[in-house]
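>> received
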Amino acid sequence: MKLTVIKKLFCAVRTAAALIIAGSVAGSIAGNALAPAAGAAPLRVVATTPDLAALAVAVGGDDIALTTLARPHEDPHFVDARPSFLRALNRADLLITGGADLEDGWLPPLTRNARNGKILEGGTGRFDAGAHVKLRDVPAVLDRSQGDVHAHGNPHFLLDPANAARVATALAEKIGTIAGTAGDAPAGERVRARAKKFADTLAAKHADWRRRLAPYRDAGVVTYHRSYDYLLAAFDLRLTGTVEPKPGIEPSASHLLALAAQMKRDKVRLILAEPNRPARTCSRLATDAGATLLRLPIMPPTPDYLAFMEQNIRALETALKRPSTERV
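>> returned
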């Protein structure tokens, strides 16, 4: 059985168990919550992933009370559902999702059982970030033989700072509209002002990051999964291959040997892999290909998008300077 299928089955079992437990468990809202300012009446916001949460913090500030479902180290495709998720979703004024099928393996049963019509697809309390960017890698034909492809396109779009700015601006409008409907127009004005400041700051940072990576323009990069496509495109780096032969399919020994040979032939010196990918597989490929392995997070460890991207750009800059096999 394919590993992706096993993960999906496991995820479904864990979600079902969480739903059962939630029926008899009462408690506080899920962990990872950011408290509002004293005396405020914040909107209750739930973000499915830490990168979306970081944008919510950037524009929402003290006008929202935020709960993040996925942890930074988790694969956002396969999040372990916890009973506390239902309580947070039941109370939510707004649910922020990535969309583009990212959360399809675990979120739908939770939203269906949360008894909150606002956060269902099409509801007034639902914001799908993927609807506000141009998605890459949209398959012309859906064919399961091509692996675990996303029907609507690649969902890892927030590694492109331009997409993050677009999503933040649209999210601010959504939060502002909900706040206005609730009778708090000043909160909407504050949120929109934060969004403009964030977008302006991010534009300046983006220009600086491009300047720093400009010496490596068109450098070839191999990635484990297609998680970094938007990042590479944003900084004029070139994807030359993937450790997975097809999305969601673990590599065979023969695939890794062929990929190492290709990397040597094309002088590809960098492999990007998420921290939760198999360390032995990545390290072996780096050794065989004479390349640097950079385990680059796709989710921020704290809700600070600018700091997260600065850390990633600095790591990329360092790794691209290295001519021989090293781990970063």
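>> Strands lie at 43-47, 64-68, 94-97, 126-128, 220-223, 238-242, 270-273, 292-295.
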